[in-house]
Amino acid sequence: MNASGRAKIWEDSHIRKGKLHTQQTAHSSKYPILFDALDFDLPAKLQGLPHLPQRSFAQQRFAKRKEEREHIQEERRSLSMYAHRDALIKAIKQYQVVIVQSETGSEKTAQIPQYLIDECFGSVVCTKPRRVAAMSVATSVAYETGVKLGHEVAIQYALKIVPQSRLSLKFEAAEEILQERTSRLGSKLGELIIAPIYATLPSEMQANIFEPTPEGARRVVLATNIAETSVTIPGILYVIDPGFRKQRSYNAKTGMESLLVVPVSRAGAKQRAGHAGRIQPGKFFRVYTKWSYMNEMEEGTVPELLRTNLSKVVLLLLSLGIDNFIDLDFIYAPPPEALLHSL
Which of 120, 126, 119, 111 is closest to 75 using CA atoms? Predict the structure, then answer.
């Protein structure tokens, strides 16, 4: 077979294959397309699902937040502090200093600052004794007011707060507010020398209170009862008397001595006042009321013989050959029961 014969045979075979594919394609057209016959009816396929409201997610979230706000406001109005809101605001507007006293759980710490913000008192600072308490109250107030913590409501911690232009209510611990005030003074704040003095303090440290104060510095002497009569400190201009002293007392029933904090006597208070301005004019500040001075303070200090253990006193008298110490003429006679108990 020549080359032209082989070419004709190859051409005829390919023509037959083409006709076969054409017949198969025509034959498949007899069957309908599957997805054209399906009906995707969502309500028919998902039976039992509620009809979704035609509202956006933001609208639903806003409505939920509105309901929460109304519920929070109802709870705030149910508090006992809310009944005195108007009287409290009136008193704050009228007086420079207002002292509020109420029972525990009345939410005065969280509610009163909000009342002041609502009445446009400007920026409000609320101090707490500890940082944990300040953080807890600030978080609660931010939730009630519907603001983000750190914007209108903030916590001062280690002198890091939001800018003042964005601040309405700030909660901070007492430590932070003192650090903030002293940091503003900077180099203007002079040296402050703290000089304690008490009976058991070493003598070389007690001598520091008699050293001259450097120029531009201020010396603060913290003293116990030793400064009333035993020590005279030169250069004292101001004396602050808290009205208390530590006094050793003996309980004959328990046989134990204890160091108690008791009110100072009126004679002791006068003695303290005498230390102010001995060299130049000074001032004396009493941190107690006149009523306390007249009614809670004794005229004089109770003698030590009447409030200590008499065992050492009895042993001393016996060593001196004094046997009848019950009839001894004491300046301040102790109770006979205390003398007998010391035996």
Answer: 111
